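During the no-cost extension, the postdoctoral fellow (Dr. R.K.) reprocessed legacy sequence entries with the updated structure-token encoder. One reprocessed record is reproduced below for audit purposes.
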Amino acid sequence: MAKKPRAVVRHALLDRIPDDVMSAKERLRDRLAPSVERGTAQARALRKAGRYQAEPGVNLVGVGIGEKVTSGERTGELCIKVLVAKKYPQGRIRPGQRIPGSIDGIATDIEAVGYPRKFVLENRARHRPVPGGVSGSPSLQAAGYRFAGTLGVVVAGRTRPQKLYALSNNHVLADENRVAIGSAVVQPATLDGGRDADAVAKLSRYVPLKFDNKRNWMDAAIAAFDRGHASKTILGIGRLTGAGRPSLNLLVRKSGRTTGLTEGVARIVRFDVFDVEYDQGMVRIDDVMVIENVAGPFSRPGDSGSAIVDPRGRLIGLLFGGSEVVTFAIPIRRILRRFNVQVAA
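Re-encoded structure tokens follow.
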């Protein structure tokens, strides 16, 4: 007669973990933890080199409670799950370093899952060539401190279409008028680890911002890409089909450094916004669109400079600020005219 499992997985969200299973898990965890602490430096070195070793101190990922799997089949039996970076046959592991088959009568189960790491939003990673929608900023030398915004979209000169630029906000590329023309722009941004060696462009032009609620029509700047560094796409959106105008209740998308790819609805147009807080004072920008969230936030700090795109793949705006509820964006055509550029084809 087959032995009945001592603890069975049923309605996992409702059932209470038995005390003896929880106790066994904690005993094994506490037994393994000291070797993990001692092996921290070795574990970092192995990961950098892309190598594995069998010792629990550098191979252990973690200990928990789950369902035992035998020959690829779930058994319904509660067990102590031990996740490791790489699973080794017993003959490759010294006896004193082997994970026991059971703890206090509770079975163990070992699975290989690779090395864990933090997940970084793709928009904050280094990209070559550089698409729109990714993290960027002036170099640390140019700005004097670390921050991050979004390189919104790649545009091309109207008279020299082979010349490509990153289009973003003044406050992203020129740090509110404070960065010198010709200064390096790095990707990713300095706040996301960008260094001098990550320079991809040079600040070319910006429209100076006026503070104390004096009228502005845009918060915009462009940086000339170094040869070969630009991709004529937006991360998560792809190639654009041209430029368009915003309209009421238009569904829009953006790809940005902080919140990635999101959707919203343009609920207000021809909006004159006052008292937008910048480092150097309050800013007014006239004739902008107001975008409401659809599911979760449409934007957050660090998304400044993101391109706003309509369902037809047309660039219609440039994001520059907002609140917890709404996002503000400048209609794109006035920006393209000011810099004499066009959507890169």
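The longest strand covers residues 260-278. The radius of gyration is 27 Å. The remaining legacy entries will be reprocessed before the final report is submitted.
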